[in-house]
Amino acid sequence: MPEPRQGEPRRPRRRRTEPDGLPPTRTAVRNAKITALPVAYAARRVGGIGRRAFGTASRDVELDIQARTAQHMFEVLGELKGCAAKLGQVLALYELALPPELGEPYREALSRLQDSVPAMLPGAVADAMATSLGPDWRNLFAEFEPRAAAAASVGQVHRATWSDGRRVAVKLMYPGAREAVRSDLEQIRRMAPLAKVFAPDADTRGLAEEFAACIIEELDYTKEAATQRIFAAAFADDPDFVVPDVVAQQGDVLVGEWLDGIPLNRIIASGAPAERSRVGLLVTRFVMSSFARTGLVYTDPHPGNFRILRDGRLGVVDFGACSPFPLEFPVLAGDIGDAALNGTDADLETALRRHGFVRPERDLDIAALVTMIAPIRDLFHQREVHLTQAFLRKQVQRVIEPRLSNVGRQLTAPPQYIPIGRTILATIGVLGQLEVQGALRDELTARLPELAAAVERFQLGEGTAATVRRLRPALTDASSAATPASTISSGPSTSRW
Predict the structure, then answer these.
(1) Looking at beta carbons, which pairs linking 322-325 to residues 24 or more positions away fall under 8 Å?
(2) Phi/psi at 203 (nearest 5 deg)?
(3) I need a surface site. Which of 180, 206, 307, 420 has the fewest CB within 10 A?
(4) Domain presence at residue 30
């Protein structure tokens, strides 16, 4: 296909899929497609050298390379679906590590990936529905739209009308999805030791197995239906949230009530600042209140799973990725939070070691760690903050900086906290895209009384003298940096990060 001239829209490439639009399941095919991503990127970099030699501006070449890579990523991950598409959703956070002008193509491509992976053709849909519901499955519906209304990593959604007249969403798993996911997970298991380069003390195999267990659970629609019923009951008649009821479930088909609303991606793209902040606080409140009401962690809070209803409530869909809430987490959050806010550096190191984030035999540069986490810890100093993309981008860059001296390499992550970690990372990504301004601290501590108590101790000045000395420079800098170029915005009670 000839390349478009500068300024012309790029025509989408024709995707090569299996018959009827199904994802490829053969291991060799999937591995080859994933391997092609870095190879193609390297080829674009080499080609860029020649283009610069012929006079093309370096910035134009770099932007074009990033746009092409983003499009390639969208096509490959979207075609493969399964874990590959789930990886694309996670990458939405790490896009923050790129400068804004280079990150934009990734943001656009990954946003489309969340809702627009290639759909099955009608013939394949009919066959898959019959496999789960029987040859007379159409009798269950007054109407059924054979074209997908939305598509995701392991399934797609169809609009329909149930036999009793209710408007419903029919979630149908892709035939072959289980085989594709197992293939991807085997790749992840084999690649796990490579992560030692970045986190030598982490239990990478344990983390990979925990991640695999989370993904495999998303293939169980019977479990998902049961989980959705728990959430629907817990949030019934809630003034802030709507969880659709389950209408029916059998095999690889899950039927739930249809939710009309504005996709969160649209709010991110064009919502007014006040609405973006309101919605971001609602997302945080839902995530934090879920474990208190249901005993489960909602581990997949990416934009594709939220809708803004006409009455302003937040609609939530997709409950395949929910895990039991670790009962010890509130104590952990309170213990580490109290040490970070009110204790000494030694107190913080003791708390981290007690909860398994540092191996017993490993040294820890606690001073370097305190410096690294200071901007995050300082979010708890004031009730209202403005969480900006620039702030989050800087923190992500600091954490993933590939230096041997990076203190992050001295830490590990207990595998049982993988669901919580996944939730935190995904929620931060959403809040950053929305650039939320408001009482974020209150939303984070309302369901964690141990952490709330630590914050209250800090507000009352009950921390150690060493802590006060440690925090004073940060607070002084914040109060004196109110300039147009500052990261602190107007108002004595609102910090802009």
Answers:
(1) 322/227, 322/231, 322/294, 322/296, 322/297, 322/298, 323/214, 323/217, 323/296, 323/297, 323/299, 323/419, 324/295, 324/296, 324/297, 325/291, 325/295, 325/296, 325/297
(2) -80, 80
(3) 206
(4) yes
Cβ–Cβ under 8 Å, residues 224 and 243:
no
Q: What is the C-alpha to C-alpha distance for residues 252 and 248, in angstroms, rounded to an integer?
A: 11
In total, how many domains does the chain have? 2
Q: Is the pLDDT of residue 234 over 50?
A: yes
**Residue that terminates a domain, selected from 69, 87, 115:** 115
Q: What secondary structure letter does DSSP report for 12?
A: P
**173 located within any domain:** no
What is the 8-class DSSP label of residue 313?
A: P
Q: How far apart, in whole angstroms, are the C-alpha atoms of residue 246 and residue 252? A: 14
Q: Which residue has the higher pLDDT, 177 or 71?
A: 177
Instruction: Decide which of 115, 139, 174 is a domain's last residue.
Output: 115
H-helix or E-strand spanning residue 75: helix 58-80
- 163's tokens: 């036999």
pLDDT at 190: 60
For the whole prediction, is pTM greater than 0.90?
A: no
In a domain, 433, yes or no: yes
pLDDT at position 438 over 70:
yes
- Longest Cα–Cα distance in the chain: 74
Alpha-carbon distance of 256 to 274, in angstroms, equals 31
- pLDDT computed for residue 131 by the predictor: 95
